[in-house]
Amino acid sequence: MQNYNKLYTPENRFAWAEINLNDFSCNIGLIKNYLERFKTSSDSLSPGIMAVVKANAYGHGLVEISKKAIQSGASWLGVALVQEGLRLRDGGIKAPILCLGSHAPEKIRDAVDNDITLSVTSIESARLISDLCREINREAKVHIKIDTGMNRIGINYKDAIQSIIMIKKMPNIKIDGVFTHFACASKEDDSYTILQWSRFDKIMAE
């Protein structure tokens, strides 16, 4: 019988996760194949997959899971903090990285220097990025987050068009994408998700 007292240390807890990397890779492949059916003849690229790996890949190992995700067909990695993106770069990962959350002003240059795309969640955050990048004569790549109903962070969908136009005019910022966050996508009743999607789709159409 194992001596569990020897097993338990601050680095070796009773609870752990074992990830079957073959199954993980297979799951990404299944999702990628599913997305292919939404590709239209006018699309130059297939729909991509962003593997969200914030919080140490939800406790599963940031660098290890990220490498496997990219190898298996994910085209982007999503993190919550610039520091997480820097860990991925230090781990040798060169794939596109999006920092999904807000970021401290002092981390903006780190993001730009390491080719980490920043999220813009307000006019103020866009202006901050623009001003700091103008000081260092660099350009930041950004994705604009639209709040379609999550009611957490992001530009309110009612103000989205006007805000995007304003941000596009700011110097030293390159808009590479626009995204939203579904509040309850896993619920069986998808009526609210459909409402959020319709709001987002209307913005994209304009």
Structure description:
The chain folds into 2 domains: 1-37 and 45-100, TIM Barrel (Alpha-Beta Barrel), CATH 3.20.20.10; 120-206, Alanine racemase (TIM Barrel, Alpha-Beta Barrel), CATH 3.20.20.10. Helices cover 43% and strands 16% of the residues. The protein contains 9 helices and 7 strands. Strands 1, 2, 3, 4, 5, 6 and 7 form a 7-stranded parallel sheet that branches. Helix 6 links the parallel strand 3 and strand 4. Helix 2 packs across helix 4 (62-71). The protein is globular, with a radius of gyration of 19 Å.
What is the fold's blueprint, element by element?
Blueprint: H1 4-7, H2 21-36, E1 50-52, H3 54-59, H4 62-71, E2 76-79, H5 82-90, E3 97-99, H6 108-113, E4 116-120, H7 123-135, E5 140-147, E6 155-156, H8 160-168, E7 173-180, H9 191-205
Parallel strand pairs: 1-2, 2-3, 3-4, 4-5, 5-6, 5-7
- End-to-end C-alpha gap: 67 Å
Overall, the morphology is globular
Taken in chain order, the helices and strands follow as HHEHHEHEHEHEEHEH
Share of helical residues = 40-55%
CATH class of the largest domain: Alpha Beta
Classify the secondary structure makeup into a structural class: alpha/beta
CATH A-level architecture of the largest domain: Alpha-Beta Barrel
Residue runs with pLDDT of under 50 for 5 or more positions: none
Proportion of beta-strand residues:
15-25%
* Average of the residue pLDDT scores: 91
The major sheet is characterized as: 7 strands, parallel
Structurally, the number of domains stands at: 2
What value does the Rg take, in angstroms?
19 Å
E-strand count? 7
CATH superfamily of the largest domain, by name, is Alanine racemase
Q: What is the number of helical segments per DSSP (H or I, 4+ residues)? A: 9
CATH fold node name of the largest domain:
TIM Barrel
